[in-house]
Amino acid sequence: MFKIIVELFFLVIIQASITPFIRRLAFVLGAVDIPNKRRVNKKPMPTLGGLGIFVTFNIGVFILLREQFPTHEAFSVLLGSSVIVLTGIIDDIMELKPRQKMFGIFIGSLVIYFLAGIKMSVLNLPFLNKQINLGWWSLPITIFWILALTNAVDLIDGLDGLADGVSMISLTTMGIVGYFFLHTGQLYIPISCFMLAACLLGFLPYNFHPAKMFLGDTGALYIGFMIAVFSLKGLKNVTFISMLVPVTILGVPITDTIYAMIRRKLNNQPVSQADKHHLHHQLMKMGLTHRQAVLAIYGISLIFSFISLLFLLSPVWGLWLLIAGLAVALELFVESIGLLGEKYKPLLSLIQKIINSRSKKDPTVEVWHLGQEKPEQLKSKHKKD
User: Fold this and answer.
1) Do the Cβ atoms of 160 and 209 come closer than 8 Å?
2) 318-356: per-residue pLDDT in tens?
């Protein structure tokens, strides 16, 4: 274990050392993010940061920690992820259409399913002690899982260091869960999570605000793809909790993606159409600086990670309480920052109606802003008392 920890620190150093060379390569290839209405950067910024992460991670797999990984699976994942990185490189240089990017992820998913043999195959129903073989459903469910998580990470890559830090927190949590809770006997799964997290840590100084280099679609797609693959290794025989944990760990990108789809449907916009109403955009509209918005989302990601660990430690009744509490808190947060738009706040509207109905029944129940004078009826009531 000590050797593994030393190698992880070595990966951080390798990543930090290789990034300046990848940065120069990005300028040579023309992989540069030009400022526009959708971008937050004010000057041209080199992308392709994910290429360095891809190279460093595979140095760890095939050189530093070679004995930890099964050969066939390691080369199969390398092939699948290479398709993703190639798709990202082309997009960073030429800007692909959403369908073209989805096709690249689809091809990578097929490699993972058929060549690497990483898939969802069995569903264990909670509380019924029944096991369902997914059969031919295994293929579409596996591909959907990879497509969904890959695009979720890609969508949150909107601020300096955001996707890098959130993914690093998620991968570290996945590694802890894999090491202490899965008990699969496959130590290389949590090691893979820690290795990719180490690569992201080495890249973070170049990516945190003010950034010197972006992950680009090369990085965002690769990180999302690898997170999906790692989570699938723990979902081979799916249980309710085993699926809930990675979904909760990735709560920030998944929530942002789901609400973005709902928001666009409510506004009669194409689901694939980009906008500036994502979580990080809304936080900055509230007055947070670039760096404060990123740190706030880091904090939210840590909360999600902590809750995912509580899922594994809680009894059944505590599990359902956590789910209910998380759902209500998440909805209140989303509505309060206007993630669905200013007009769509059903839960807050319901709470307001309850308060208003209560105040009509009891005239002494009033709500007023801090600093304003008390209503006259409350003044008179206090005088009588």
Assistant:
1) yes
2) 888 888 888 888 888 888 877 777 777 777 778 778 877
